[in-house]
Amino acid sequence: MKKFALTAFASAAALSLAACGSADDASADAEADTVEMPSDDAMTDIPDPVADEDIEDAADEAAASAEEAVDAIDAAGDAASEAAADAEAAAEQATQAAEENMQ
Q: How far apart are CA 76 and CA 87, in angstroms?
């Protein structure tokens, strides 16, 4: 069984590698034009380098934005704590009122 599985795997691998080729004629020799791109064509889509000043400005803006977000989160947390305290106080008053009405 192991030999059969190994043979099947090797056959599948060989067929998949054979399917990757795109040459119409198997006797065609590999040439530089067909194997790899000329360097000019390879470098056409490369973006221009970014100046260090632009990166520093972007980093400063990101840091300021992060600080603002942290401040907003802290304020929201404080508001949530106050709301929870108010709700707890209201629940306590409601409980006391209900206990007084039961007596």
A: 16
